[in-house]
Amino acid sequence: MIYISRSPLLRGAVLGLLLLVSTCSGLFAQGSPSPPAATQQLVETIRDTLETESFAGALWGVHIVNLRTGAVLYSRNADRNFVPASNVKLATAAAALEHLGPEYRYETTMHADGPVEDGTLKGNLVVRGAGDPTLGGHRQRSDPTEVF
């Protein structure tokens, strides 16, 4: 698994790339055919950005299509499966907020089935999760009890 640093520089570069792509894709989606020079400039800018030292070791999946003609303007690792990126998580979080409401709280309960003697539980401790997204994930590297 590749871990990408969450440094402000990296976030800024990714945001810049996303803004560039979204701006350019709007131009290409309009009524006229994609000008070859503009398409080539877009391809070069994306390629140069993804190949900078800031992204060394990162794996990208990019697929840009002209919405009017269906022509592929740029494609890189488009056939690979990726774990959803943070922008997908934003849509998921927005849907959860809309569906569950701002006052919703996830409830994780713990149950013990034995007595506590001298501060030690003599039995099992069961954690019953209810979908709390703050448990696990990147916070849990190798030790599953680390989040507690």
What does this structure look like?
This protein has helices spanning 8-28, 36-50, 86-100, and strands at 62-65, 72-76, 109-112, 116-117, 120-121, 125-128. The protein has 148 residues and is α+β, with helices and mostly antiparallel strands. It has two domains: 1-104, no CATH class; 106-148, no CATH class. A two-stranded antiparallel sheet has the order 1-2. A hairpin with a 6-residue loop joins strand 1 (62-65) and strand 2. The radius of gyration is 23 Å and the shape is elongated. The model is unreliable at 1-7 and 27-33 (pLDDT under 50).
Label this structure with key terms.
single chain; 3 helices; 148 residues; disordered N terminus; two-stranded antiparallel ribbon; two-stranded antiparallel sheet; alpha+beta
SSE blueprint and pairings:
Blueprint: H1 8-28, H2 36-50, E1 62-65, E2 72-76, H3 86-100, E3 109-112, E4 116-117, E5 120-121, E6 125-128
Kindly summarize this structure in a few lines.
This protein has 148 residues and is an alpha+beta fold.
